[in-house]
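ok new one. same drill as before - structure tokens go in, u give me an amino acid for every spot. 85 of them this time. try not to just spam alanines like last time pls lmao
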């Protein structure tokens, strides 16, 4: 799936609450967990930063929420990302 298609799929599922400013990023429990998993994966590999593969695997490992749904619909395979990093 093309990046623009993924972006549209995510954007169509997300809305900001009335009390949230457009500039504010809403960190959901799923997003915090995905970032924690990505950080742990990066640290385990001895990397100095979290890269895209770490984040994708973190999102996939959470397995719930908008990101997991979009990744599943796009045919993302967690195992493939882990093999290529």
């Amino acid at each position: 799936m093309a990046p623009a298609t993924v972006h549209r799929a995510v954007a169509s599922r997300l809305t900001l609450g009335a009390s949230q400013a457009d500039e504010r990023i809403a960190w959901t429990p799923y997003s915090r967990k995905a970032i924690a998993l990505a950080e742990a994966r990066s640290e385990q590999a001895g990397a100095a930063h979290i890269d895209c593969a770490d984040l994708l695997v973190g999102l996939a490992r959470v397995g719930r929420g908008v990101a997991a749904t979009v990744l599943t619909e796009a045919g993302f395979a967690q195992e493939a990302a882990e093999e290529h990093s």
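The two ends are 20 Å apart (CA to CA). and btw The chain is about 60% helix and 0% strand.
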